[in-house]
Amino acid sequence: MGNLALSTSFFRTDATPSDPVHSESFVARRICNGVMYYYTPMTAAENQTVYVAKDSPTTADLHPISSSVSSETLSHTAISSQQHLGAASHSRPLLLFFSWLGAQPGAVAKYRDLYLDRGMDVLLVQSSVMHFLWPQWGLNYGLEILNILEEPPFTDRLILVHASSIGGFTFTQLLTHITQQPKQHAGLAHRVIGHIYDSLVVGSLDHMATGLGKTLLPRLEGFIKTTAMLYFRLFKSQTADIYENGVQVFYNSPVTSPALFFFCENDAMCSPAVLERLMDFWRRRGVSVDSRKWKKSTHAAHLRCHPEDYLSTLQHFLNSLSVPSLQSNI
């Protein structure tokens, strides 16, 4: 099958529960399965009238949402009615956060709150391992997300992408549709003001198989890896060939705004040399690329392992984007 020059990561990490949420009251609305929208109401009056429905948008069992509500609760809620979307400023930038596989609500909240506190709204996109194992489903999911971003309340808004683990793979699925139908979707690529990649898997199918073993059944890592490699060979046209196409799409991404990469040397799912070649390729294309590499860290958990360094690098990157609402201290 040959080696893949680049593949995006789909692996979770052993993230610890987050501290209590410290942002002001916010609204959480389930857009569809796997997609949650978070935004801060515009006024104090709106702040006091934000409600969430536990079971459905029509249930009478309503409870106010605030920063004191647990992230676990928020991950299983939907906003009570469409009218609350009017409270969000459609002029605010949107953080499109593609999380890693199996990300716990507490861990995701740390990233969500970083951007809510910066005056951005957050669209959280969570992926399934089946989106990777059967890429056509991932492509379908990518198109669903793309369609969401092209409809109110997200139409024409500036977008900042932050992709971690399987999120990088899912974002590549969006890029695939943009590449295949540029007249229909090119506008979205131009709306992306910056893209951040945390723990991409770079290398070959072997890196993917290694990640599956570490993610699904760590105690049977070797068996899972061997099985995955056999699966990739048996279903080459439905898996490996599509991955390779995604590699080419990512290398020649229609998104050319500034990029930031977080990675480490001891990540078994990443070849730093290959990743650095990718970054050099993008620079030759005219893309502004920044990066932060650590000798030792944990896959998809650099924020937890190196919080000050991570936040300082992120702050510098956001300041470089020349978007006033992003240029306060984290």
From TrEMBL:
A Pfam family per the record: DUF829
* TM region positions: none
Recall the GO molecular function terms of this protein's record: serine hydrolase activity
Q: Which residues form a coiled coil?
A: none
* Record-linked SUPFAM superfamilies: alpha/beta-Hydrolases
Superkingdom of the source? Answer: Eukaryota
Which InterPro entries has this protein been placed in?
Answer: AB_hydrolase_fold (IPR029058), DUF829_TMEM53 (IPR008547)
Which protein, by its recorded name, is this?
Answer: Si:dkey-5i3.5
List the source organism.
Answer: Cyprinodon variegatus (Sheepshead minnow)
